[in-house]
Structure formats: structure tokens, C-alpha cells
Fold this protein.
Amino acid sequence: MGVSLSGAAIAQNAAPADAGSIARLDALFARWDRKDAPGCAVAVSRNGQAIATRAYGMADLEKRVPATPDSIYEAGSDSKQFTAAAILMLAREGKLSLDDDIRKYLPEIPAYSAPVTIRHMLHHTSGLRDWGSVAAVEGWPRNSRTASNDDVLEIAARQSELNFAPGTHYLYSNSNYNLAAIIVARVSGQSLADFTRDRIFTPLGMTHTSWRDDHGDVVPGRTGAYDWQEGIYRNDQVIEDAYGNGGLLTTVGDLVKWQAALDAGTFGAGFTEQMQTPTRLNDGTPIAYALALVNLDHHGQQEVSHSGSTGGYRAWMARYPKQKLAVSLLCNSGNADTPVLGRAVADIFLPAWKDKPYSPKGALPSGLYADGMNGFPVKFDSDEQGRLRADGKLMTPVGPGRWALREDIFAFSKIGPKTSLVRENREGEKIAYRKVEAVTTFDATPYVGKFCAVDANACLTFRQQGEALVYSGPRWSDQTLSPAYADVFTGEAMPDAGRITVKFQREANGAVTALRFGEGRAYDLLFRRAD
């Protein structure tokens, strides 16, 4: 059922992929090549011209519409590179500087101890809390209500604290790019949607591309979006109006044109180089994240890529500059692992490589370790086959004392009583962990009560239920907390949100008077006892 563009529709003079490569491509997406499931569209291009363009599965399950290469998907965070490009265009015209304090354009944002710059935002080193994480604490996880960029600004404006001092760490935060979209509008006098239409989409002939800045708009050709839940697909279309962080509606064919423009230097000398040049933290640590492009190594080849995820949409884009190869992948299935799929697509067309498995020797590390930045605990142990696990997830040995968990590396040294641990994230930062003593039994009495947030519109109520500590908050009922280490608990956050950590704080007399609540991209939100 895979659908291919005809030779006439592929860029002129493109040399099509050989039949063997197409067969491998089809095999890779076989699980989505069905009439009862959502799927994906993928385009592979070389020298700016499409050599393989395929579509699999259904664009709309309710209307039974098959996907085609012209089906419109939402690109999730792959959208960020277009926001970054708009900011860079304004900077190159002298209308702003990447090193400007954002308060020059966003005076609503608090004055922190050190200024947050536009450059900090674009590289995710600003420390700004993710608005979706704060909203989740308030009972509104992402895509549970309509939110606009004005709502993002309102949430950001009442954050009296940052996750960390600007430039000291890397942490992905959607707030950075929603605020960047507002800056584009305030500096240029055009909305980001209008600016990018006039400066990028129309000049490049991206005729199927627009922004989801009003989720109620009718967009001919847009696919449905679906999530796999308890054995069935359910609708998971995006109902937000906030954009710039995501929200690009596009096709794989239009993304081929964008990636070709970057490769060709269409936007001027040095533009692409600026877009894909990684940053450094204040202490000189190199970070792979550039301007919404991640500069990585894939089996010895330079890879400039980004992934996207929003609602039931998944996306991935990558360019391999040395081979003049690009992959554009869009899916409307929430269980499509697009970074894994996309790299598998690239491997069909890149030079062959051999995996080098590593077998660990000696004792495996074990115990509970806390992240040195946010205190999030991770438990390491072994399964029945003697394989290392992190919070129950199997890890892959990649070297002496080194284990991979997806794209992070956990590096242990001195296995034994004096074991030390550092997490090396994909972007290149190294975060030290500390060994902590696990707690299994506790007295819930000091934690019982009501606590209200300083920077969020939320109060949390904690109570004892049998031998467990449970808590409730805005729009969600009791959630059970698990003890981790002294005065620290973990649990699942509000429905459809991520894992949380609650760190209770005591005064000198031992009384619990406050807590710090952490959700993936919003660290240490302060709550004070209110009962």
C-alpha cells in the first residue's frame, strides 16, 4: 500500500533510489502499511532532490482516507527551526541581537539575577521553566485545553525563579520558542505565521505549509492524529493555539524544499552555518544544540537533526552534510518512534557501518542515585538475566562502566562502596549524581496538609491513606507517592503528565513547612504550607 510520487513529481533530474533501497524502506514501515492504522510519510533527498518519497497507513481513520505524500501532518518541535530562522533573519538585518536581554522585547518577564538573552532561549540554556510543565501542575497538562502564546507569556511572567542560572545548564523548554515567536511579532510587526509565510514558505514554494495558530481553522489535506491506548487507536488532535514551539503544518515534500535551502545556502552566506553551530555553557562545556538543530555524530557521520512530538503527531528531520543526504519523516501515530525510524531510513542510504557490541565485565552497579541538578532519583538494579536496569528500563552496555539509556549515557566509576555516577546527555552536558539511601518505611504525619505554590495557580493536599502518602491537586484526584530518600517522594504526576518529585523542606525544629515540586522541565516549584 506504500504510495510513491511519480517520477514527474520528484524534483527534476533526481536519480531515484534503487529498487532494493525502496524495498528496505517499505519493510521498515511495514507495521504501518495497513488500512486500519495511522502511519507515516517519508521523503529521502540527495543534493536537494527527492530520491524516495513514500506514504504508509491512513491519513484519517474515521473517513478511511489513505495517507499520500501530500498529506499534511503537524511537525511538533521540528517547527522550532523555522522560529529560530525568523529570529536569525531579524538579527542579520540588525533589528535585534541574539545577545539582547529578552526583557528588551518582553518587559513582562521578571528581572532575574542574571539576564536571559535571546541566544539563551534559542539554545535552551535560559533556565526558563517550561510553560506546559507549570500548566500541568495547575491541572492543565499540554493539549487538555486551548492555550495561546499570550497564555504562555502570562505563565512565564509569574515565574519568580528559573530552573538554573542562564547559561549554566542545558534543559529543553518550549517556553523559549513561544516567547521567541512573540519577539518576532513585536520586532517585525508581523505575526510569526505571516513573517515565515512571506520570508520562507512562499519563496521556497512550500505551498502546503502553514501554522496551527488557530486550531479551529479548516486545513484541507490535514491528517487525523492518533494515540495507541489499551489496544486501540484514539483521536489525539492538537487543540492548542500556542505555536512557535510547535504547530507547523506541512508535508514531507515541503520539508525537502526547506532542507535543500539550508544545504544550498539559499538564505545568504553563513546563514546555515549559524543555524547549525552548537553553543557552549558559561564554563565552556560544548552543547550540541544549535538553533533548533542538534549537531550530532551518527555512526561516524555528521548529523544535523531534530525530532518532534505533539498530540498524536511524531516527526523527525535530519541532514547529513557530507553525503548531501536529508530525511524528512512525519507520522500521525503516537507510538511511532520517529528518531529510531528516521535513523534507520538514513542508514539505508548512508555508508555501511558495523555495530560494536560491548560485554560488561565484573560487578554491575546498583542502588539509588539522585540527579545533582533537580534531585530526581534513579534506581539501578539487575534483572534475572544479569542485565542492568534504570528504574526498570533495560540499559545497553557501550563501554567499561558506561551504559546507554536511549540517548543518555550513565558513566559509573569505582564500582563498589565509593561508586560515582555521571549522566552524559545527548547534548553533551555531564550531570553528576549522588548516592542516596533509599527509604521504604516512613511516618506520613509531618507531610500531611495543604501546600500552595508561589509561582503557580495551584495548591496540593497531602494525606495518609493506609501506609501510603497520597496527594491531590487542581482537577485531579488522589495520586500515590512512593518514598525515595529522606523527605523526598516520587510519583506519576497529574493525568497525562510526567514523573514528578516532591522534596519536603523542614525548619530547624523539624517541622515541614514547605516543599519543592519538580516536573520534567519545571524544577523546584516552591509550595508553602497553607493549612
About this structure: The chain is about 20% helix and 30% strand. The longest strand covers residues 301-310. The radius of gyration is 24 Å. The CA atoms of residues 112 and 161 lie 8 Å apart.
